[in-house]
Amino acid sequence: MRVTYRQMPPTAVFYARGMGPYASSCGEAWQRIGEWLAQNCARKRVKQAFGIFHDNPRTTAPELIRYDACVPVLSCAGLELAPGIGRQTLPGGAFAVHTHVGGYDDIGALFAHLHGEIVPKRALTVDYERPFVAVHLNDPQITREMHRRTELCVPVMPIPMPQATNDEGQEGYDVAEIARRIAG
Fold first, then answer.
1. pLDDT score at 1
2. pTM for this one?
3. Kind of pairing, strands 49-53 and 132-136?
4. At 140, is the secondary structure helix, strand, or coil?
5. What is the rounded distance in angstroms from the CA atom of residue 58 to the CA atom of residue 112?
6. Which domain holds residue 20?
7. Is the CB of residue 18 less than 8 Å from the CB of residue 67?
8. Measuring CA to CA, which of 82, 130, 140, 156 is 20 to 30 A from 35?
9. Number of domains present in the structure of the chain
């Protein structure tokens, strides 16, 4: 499984929330936001969308699981909020990212694999203060299931790295000194 690491900026979005197990709450949330976009003739303006998985289904009661279907505010600027549609800012930060090509039915198992095996094997720690994010890169109404692309983003703690410098008086590694030791 190919995984990259990316720093993502905070993103302002409009969202619809679904409650309950992800198998049902995802469809409910996407239907609500899709209807809102259709009422405002704005569906074609959305080039990517976000699915926000707030809760771990293994540790959260099924009726309390929260899922948000989101579209960027920039692509829907000027639209009025409606009942069931809110506005929030998705937290940015460091993410381990895997691009999945195919249907949405595999997303839960892929997130579990990323969370339970891939991220720990790379000596990273999941940041449970931020939600898991699915970035949908295609419109499922016009993209065949086998061609849909979704970035699965697991929030991770950034790895603190010492600053490398060869300037005197600053903290960090002295690159010139390291080079002399290697050469000598």
1. 84
2. 0.82
3. antiparallel
4. coil
5. 10
6. 4-183
7. yes
8. 130
9. 1
